[in-house]
Design brief:
Rossmann fold, 8 helices, 2 domains, 228 residues, alpha/beta, 21% strand, Arc Repressor Mutant, subunit A, 42% helix, four-stranded antiparallel beta sheet
């Protein structure tokens, strides 16, 4: 899979290393070294993927991700030296699709890139038809979630969670199963990530988030989506 990638990394040596590995896999790469130029490049080129360092000068990577999510569904893979769970969950909550913590091996990064591109590539399968569960409508082609006719803004992670649950209504998914669907295996990301997505989604789709009737908790197991 060949893709156009915007790489935002202020460390020139690190950026050059990552660029070479991306180009070896036949991706085209635009390299920028600060947050403001990253935003300009993404808006201009509409890439297939953004590889985004958190510690960028000017506008940092978290703010870049926050702004991009208002404008685009472009997949974002963040590079960070911050490895605490709270830091990682903050980035995911802002809409990042995956994280790689520094130091990392270029081979690991390329594997993450391949996985993310496969996961976010348009698919032409029956499963990509509009999903309906009660008053909820999930349209993968438009990447659009609506509740009782109103479009609901959501992050890519929240959307994939809803699409996974809606594909099999009333099926109970464990947190580990949902995490694998959203982010693959990452020792720095925990099942608490799913709880954060669920909490945010309930604020958006439930009449009373404290007493959910759609996105239900099955205690001791996980979550399910119902037509309540």
């Amino acid at each position: 899979m060949c893709a156009h990638v915007v790489l935002a990394e202020d460390d020139h040596k690190q950026a050059e290393l990552v660029r070479r590995y991306l180009e070896r896999e036949n991706h085209t790469v635009a390299v920028v070294h600060d947050g403001r130029n990253a935003l300009d490049e993404v808006r201009r080129q509409r890439p297939d993927l953004v590889v985004l360092d958190v510690m960028l000068p000017g506008v940092d990577g978290l703010d870049v991700c926050r702004i991009l999510r208002r404008e685009s569904d472009v997949p974002v893979l963040m590079l960070t030296a911050r490895s605490t769970e709270d830091d990682l969950l903050l980035g995911l909550d802002l809409g990042a699709d995956d994280y790689v913590t520094k130091p990392f091996s270029p081979r690991e990064l390329m594997a993450r890139v391949r996985t993310l591109l496969r996961r976010t590539a348009p698919k032409q399968s029956p499963k990509d038809r509009v999903l309906r569960v009660g008053g909820l409508v999930i349209d993968p082609d438009k990447h659009e979630l609506s509740s009782d006719g109103a479009v609901i803004p959501c992050t890519p992670g929240e959307f994939r969670l809803m699409a996974t649950l809606a594909a099999q209504p009333d099926r109970v998914f464990t947190r580990a199963q949902l995490l694998e669907q959203l982010h693959g295996f990452d020792k720095f990301i925990t099942t608490r990530t799913i709880d954060v997505h669920v909490m945010n989604l309930r604020k958006k789709i439930e009449p009373n988030p404290r007493k959910p009737t759609r996105l239900m908790t099955v205690y001791g197991v996980g979550y399910k989506l119902t037509d309540g």
